[in-house]
Design a protein that fits this description.
It is a single chain. By secondary structure, the chain is an alpha+beta fold. The chain has 6 domains: about 1-100; about 100-205, PAS domain (Beta-Lactamase); about 220-330, Beta-Lactamase (2-Layer Sandwich), CATH 3.30.450; about 350-455, PAS domain (Beta-Lactamase), CATH 3.30.450; about 465-625, 2-Layer Sandwich (Alpha-Beta Plaits), CATH 3.30.70; about 650-895, TIM Barrel (Alpha-Beta Barrel), CATH 3.20.20.450. The strands form 7 sheets. It has an 8-stranded mixed barrel, surrounded by 4 helices. A hairpin with a 5-residue loop joins strand 16 and strand 17. Helix 1 (about 5-10) runs antiparallel to helix 3 (about 55-100) and helix 2 (about 15-25) runs antiparallel to helix 3. It starts with a helix and ends in a 34-residue tail after the last strand. It binds ligand C2E and calcium ion (CA) (2 copies). Ligand C2E binds near residues 689, 731, 792 and 875.
């Protein structure tokens, strides 16, 4: 039985207690009754005294009436009481069932903490049955029972402490349920405790929290500024991290504030106005771009605003998403201008360029050159396809090529002729496929370039690289290439061929005499004649006057026959402007494979054969000879080295004394020195002048070398304290080339040497080569005041003729005669005659090559004027003769001189 039922029963005792009280009130004088009513509803009479018997009847009657009345009253009362009790029971049952049907568990305890009520929901929550509740059970007993059943989260004391809190306490049960327990103290000292299963609600609120957190972190991590403000007061209610950064304020500083807190006044006003516009906009959404002053600079802010409404559709919040697009805008402006620039470039390149979209085959770009090539305006090209532009046959052709190029994906080029209004032109088409990120072809760029002119230039340049501009013949490079091809073809066969090296004689003279134009003309004519004679073989111009030929067939016969034919062809004169010019040829020949198996060797050997032919006789034909040409090759190598000898300081001068011819030589008899050139080769060491002077003469190097010798000798002599003679040898070549007289003159001025101290020794070669010229120059040299000596007198043929033609100052008797003195009587007679001749012509006589005292004595006896030879002194560096030239170093007498010098 619940507490409420017990109470209901307790109230049913009350009408009896009311009737007794009523009797006591109705008989106040006859009887006194004391009724003690117990709190639980029982009663008892302690005494009833009746005062007299007369009154017994009256009283009995009255008592009867009263009793009847009382009985009626009691009946009435008890009926009323029963009715009230039933109503109470019904009400209690109703309340009880109402409480039992609650979703909240309820337990009530009275002031003594005994349980007076516990609803079904409570039992259900904790898995109890009603039988678990025993009479007299306290609330704490029930809680302990929960603890033993594992239905309590904390220990009991803590539990009681927690549940007192106004919000209650959530008890997390082991089975995962959450029960919200609240204790409410009643005024009568009892307690009502409510137990509510809030598992689902808790789960939901947890989920909500997670979702909220997730959304917050999403918003926070959006790189765009997100701000939300209440429309009512314009205060911020949300600011994400990007906004914090933009504002330079923390979230706490923003939230609850208005735009004035974030922006400078002018900017804040603009923002507020934009907010207002957004709120007023019918769509509730606006996009704006504001240029505002912010963070010390003007920034461009792009903003999206939208209105968030409450359930009733009333605008509640304004959400703004905005971005500082200043940098991006300026970047995009740059991109735009770069794009425009590129478009201009593309438009102005002289190459036709179109871009085709592969998805639909439409042209999406065409530049100016493409307009010209397709003969239609760009607007008509863009958006059209191949079919719109070309005829069906061309479409097929071009489409196939496009598809091939797209398949290959790289750059595909091809050259093809196209008929244009300027005639047939050569075009270079380049196809480049543009891929998307996935590597799929998207566009095809096609360029068409008119390369007709370029190709022509290229082939012209290629021709120039391999041809001689004057004669149009192949040049040396082409000749070597042809030679290599020939070798390749003949390798591993017994085929032979010959290389002919041709030298045009007297080309230089023709240039000098007739001028270069005639020289050039001659070369051209000569080339044509060569081509006609060789007919089929290779002809090339190797250098100025050197030509190369390749002739196959049986060797050496084939080469010999060709060489002869060439020689014969030169019999016919060339005529220019009515002037007949005849030229000669010298030919050197090498044969493959016996004279060389590679191009370089074959040509070098043909050259060597030519070189020897030239030294033998101009106009001859010479086959390469290993032994003979080896020496020549050596000489040529030496010649090569000689060309750099002056520059490398390898040349020097030795000096040989010349003295009066006296039986006993004394230093003061020395009259002068002959300067003799010396070459110390860096590898070969000392090279005799007999070897290198002829080499220098052949090559013309002697001109440059002679200048150096002359200057060096004059400079040296000018430095001597004594005014001694200095003799310098001149080669015939020095008379043929350059301005010898001018050179001597300027060297004398330059070195300050008195002209009378300089003696130039010449051989008869000077006059043999070109008598008139030689004579003229000798005269002019003499006019400068220098002396001229005839060297090696007697060794040639026509010395006497020259003595007659020019007034030499000195005659040097060739040492061959002196050498033979005492060996044959003729020598003495010849020397004697020469001395007589000289004296007769008033020319002083010098005997060369005096090596012995006997020779000296003979010459002294014969009144020879001067002597020169090893007896007196060998050619040596000037320091050796320091004392003789008046310098300090002591050289006591001739015998002290080193025996072998130079
Ligand atoms: P050369 O002009 O007749 O020079 C005299 C040559 O006779 C020198 O030979 C000299 O060393 C040599 N000699 C002198 N005394 C004696 C002697 O007692 N016995 C013998 N056996 N020989 C003697 P080197 O220096 O070898 O010169 C040879 C030739 O080279 C010269 O003959 C000259 O024609 C030429 N040469 C030398 N230096 C020059 C130069 O500077 N310019 C030119 N153009 N030719 C030079
Ligand atoms: Ca000499
Ligand atoms: Ca000589």
């Amino acid at each position: 039985m619940t507490g409420w039922q017990k109470q209901a029963r307790a109230t049913t005792a009350s009408p009896v207690w009311v009737a007794i009280c009523l009797c006591a009130i109705l008989a106040p004088g006859s009887a006194a009754a004391q009724i003690v009513a117990n709190p639980d509803g029982s009663f008892s009479a302690t005494a009833l005294e009746i005062s007299n018997t007369a009154l017994v009847w009256q009283v009995a009657m009255g008592g009867l009436v009263v009793a009847a009345f009382l009985a009626a009253v009691i009946l009435w009362v008890s009926t009323a009481l029963r009715r009230a009790r039933h109503s109470n029971i019904r009400r209690a049952a109703f309340v009880s069932s109402a409480l039992n049907s609650l979703t909240t568990g309820i337990v009530m305890v009275d002031a003594r903490k005994r349980i007076v009520f516990c609803n079904d929901r409570y039992l259900e929550i904790y898995g109890f049955s009603r039988s678990d509740l025993v009479p007299g059970m306290t609330g704490r007993d029930l809680t302990s029972l929960r603890a033993t059943r594992g239905m309590l989260c904390d220990d009991i004391e803590e539990y009681y402490r927690n549940v007192k809190s106004p919000e209650g306490h959530v008890c997390e049960l082991r089975d995962g349920r959450s029960i919200l327990v609240k204790h409410r103290e009643l005024s009568n000292g009892g307690i009502v405790s409510t137990h509510e299963d809030c598992t689902a609600r808790r789960k939901m609120s947890r989920q909500l929290a997670t979702t909220t957190h997730f959304l917050e972190s999403v918003i926070d991590n959006i790189p765009v500024c997100v701000a939300a403000k209440s429309i009512e007061d314009g205060r911020y209610i949300l600011a994400n991290r990007a906004f914090e950064q933009f504002a330079g304020l923390s979230r706490d500083q923003i939230i609850g504030q208005t735009a004035e807190k974030v922006y400078v006044p002018e900017a804040a006003q603009m923002v507020t106005e934009a907010d207002r516009d957004a709120i007023a906009s019918p769509t509730g959404q606006t996009r704006t771009e504001l240029s505002i002053e912010h963070n010390g600079g003007r920034r461009l802010i792009a903003c999206n605003r939208m209105i968030a409404r409450d359930e009733k559709g009333k605008p509640e919040f304004l959400v703004s998403l905005f971005e500082d697009v200043t940098d991006r805008r300026s970047l995009s402006r740059e991109v735009q201008s770069a794009k425009k620039f590129l478009e201009q470039v593309v438009d102005n390149i002289p190459v036709s360029l179109v871009v085709k979209r592969l998805s639909d085959g439409q042209y999406v770009l065409a530049n100016r050159a493409a307009e010209a090539m397709l003969t239609r305006r760009r607007e008509d090209v863009i958006g059209s396809t191949l079919e719109d532009i070309y005829n069906p046959a061309d479409v097929q052709f071009i489409l196939k090529r496009d598809e091939d190029a797209v398949r290959k994906k790289g750059v595909v080029t091809e050259e093809h002729p196209i008929q244009t209004e300027n005639g047939l032109r050569l075009f270079l088409t380049r196809r480049v496929t543009v891929l998307d990120e996935a590597g799929e072809p998207q566009y095809l760029i096609k360029t068409n370039e008119d390369i007709t002119d370029r190709r022509e230039t290229e082939s012209r340049m290629a021709h120039m690289a391999y041809h001689d501009a004057l004669t149009e013949l192949p040049n040396r490079a082409a000749f070597l290439q042809a030679l290599e091809q020939m070798i390749d073809a003949c390798e591993d066969t017994d085929e032979e061929f010959a290389v002919l090296s041709l030298d045009l004689d007297r080309l230089k003279e023709i240039n000098d005499v007739f001028g270069h134009e005639v020289g050039d003309q001659l070369l051209i004519e000569f080339s044509r004649r060569l081509e006609s004679v060789i007919s089929g073989g290779v002809v090339a111009r190797l250098s100025g006057d050197e030509f190369g030929l390749i002739i196959d067939g049986l060797q050496p016969d084939s080469a010999k026959a060709l060489a002869t034919r060439l020689m014969q062809s030169m019999q016919t004169e060339f005529t220019f402007d009515g002037r007949a010019v005849r030229i000669g040829l010298t030919i050197g020949i090498s044969v493959y494979p016996r004279n060389g198996r590679d191009a370089e060797t074959l040509l070098t050997n043909a050259d060597a054969a030519l070189f020897r032919a030239k030294t033998k006789a101009r106009g001859s034909i010479n086959f390469f000879d290993m032994e003979l040409d080896q020496q020549l090759r050596d000489r040529r190598a030496l010649h090569q080295d000689l060309s750099t000898a002056i520059r490398n300081g390898e040349l020097s001068l030795h000096y040989q004394p010349q003295a009066r011819a006296r039986h006993k030589m004394k230093s003061d008899h020395v009259l002068g020195f002959e300067a003799l050139a010396r070459w110390t080769h860096p590898v070969r060491g000392f090279v005799p002048p007999g070897d290198f002077i002829p080499l220098a003469e052949e090559s013309g190097l002697i001109v440059e070398m002679g200048e150096w010798i002359l200057r060096e000798a004059c400079r040296e002599a000018a430095s001597w304290p004594k005014d001694l003679q200095i003799s310098v040898n001149l080669s015939p070549a020095q008379f043929m080339h350059g301005d010898l007289v001018g050179l001597v003159h300027s060297i004398l001025i330059e070195t300050g040497l008195a002209p009378g101290r300089l003696e130039l020794e010449i051989t008869e070669g000077v006059l043999i080569e070109d008598f008139d010229r030689g004579l003229l120059l000798l005269r002019r040299l003499k006019a400068l005041g220098v002396r001229i000596a005839m060297d090696d007198f007697g060794s040639g043929y026509s010395s006497l003729t020259y003595l007659q033609a020019f007034p030499f100052d000195k005659i040097k008797i060739d040492r061959a005669f002196v050498m033979n003195l005492g060996r044959n009587p003729q020598s003495a007679a010849i020397i004697r005659a020469m001395i007589g001749l000289g004296h007769g012509l008033n020319i002083s006589i010098v005997a060369e090559g005096v090596e012995t005292q006997e020779q000296l004595s003979f010459l002294a006896d014969e009144a020879c004027d001067q002597v020169q030879g090893y007896l007196l002194g060998k050619p040596a560096p000037i320091e050796t003769y320091a004392e003789w030239i008046g310098r300090t170093k002591s050289v006591s007498n001739v015998s002290n001189l080193p025996r072998r010098v130079g």
